[in-house]
Amino acid sequence: MTFPFYKLLQTQGRESIAAKLVANLITESGADRVLACDLHSGQSMGYFDIPVDHVYGQPVILDYLASKGISSDDLVVVSPDVGGVARARAFAKKLSDAPLAIVDKRRHGHNVAEVMNLIGDVKGKVAIMVDDMIDTAGTISKGAALLHQEGAREVYACTTHAVFSPPAISRLSSGLFQEVIITNTIPLSEQNYFPQLTVLSVANLLAETIWRVHDDCSGDIEPFSTLGID
After folding, report:
1. Which residues of 25-48 are buried (b: 16+ CB within 10 A; e: fewer)?
2. pTM assigned to the model
3. CA 34, CA 22: separation in Å to the nearest integer?
4. CA-to-CA distance for 137 and 164, rounded, in angstroms?
5. CA distance 154 to 132
6. Which of 185, 182, 181 is nearest to 55 (CA)?
7. At CA 70, angle to CA 66 and CA 71, rounded to 5?
8. 63, 82, 132, 217: most buried by Cβ count inside 10 Å?
9. How does DSSP assign 12-53, residue by residue?
10. pLDDT tens, 106-161?
11. What DSSP letter does each residue of 142-209 carry, written as one string?
12. Spatial separation of the C-alpha atoms in residues 217 and 144, rounded to whole Å
């Protein structure tokens, strides 16, 4: 069974914590172990009373980027907000320790973001924007516009979960991005495809993880860290 376990944490006072409810529902339904991919907040694992294996879509996206043959000297990894710095830093380390840039923004309301300034240098670089999910694409598209203003040669968007709430498609296909790279953790309807979109499968990543968990396999063949597994 799969469940879209993102955006379920408390974001303001007196708001219910849906993550705990979902954890209880899954447990009471008879599950004895959970495999999660790129939780929006890693703390969600603490709501479960059963074992949780947390994997990241990062290795799948990294393999694809490596196949494109972009020179490491031309790359800069960009976090679309301050909260994603740790994720972007880990991503940059896997890309030959590429430099890091951060988009500083102020949020004025739910799903509304305003870009303020850029921390770091992107002039003449291929900018790789990394996030765990894209919802309405407001944050990442405004960030991409800022990167172009600051002289970025090309901008790529990389994310694990493509929620794509309106008007995400129009924003992502507006020409700001050289390519939008996502995984298939969330099924995407045909009408939401656009020319710049690339969808990568996480099937092998999840299958390998399930096999290792089932066989109680350690790192004899390959370290768990190479699969992005907590």
Report:
1. ebeeeeeeebbbbbbbbeebbebb
2. 0.85
3. 12
4. 7
5. 20
6. 185
7. 110
8. 132
9. STT---HHHHHHHHHHHTT-S-EEEES-SSGGGGGG-SS-EE
10. 766 666 656 578 999 999 999 999 999 999 999 999 999 999 999 999 999 999 99
11. HHHHHHHHTT-SEEEEEEEEE---TTHHHHHTSSS-SEEEEESSS---GGG--TTEEEE--HHHHHHH
12. 42
- The CA distance from 33 to 191, in Å, is 35
Beta pairing, strands 112-119 & 100-109 = antiparallel
CA distance 117 to 36: 34
Q: Tell me which residue has tokens 């900018």.
A: 127
- If one counts every other C-beta atom within 10 angstroms of the C-beta of residue 223, the result is 10
Picking from 209, 228, 212, the residue whose alpha carbon sits closest to that of residue 220 is: 212
Helix H or strand E segment including 99: none
Tokens 């447990």 locate to: 27
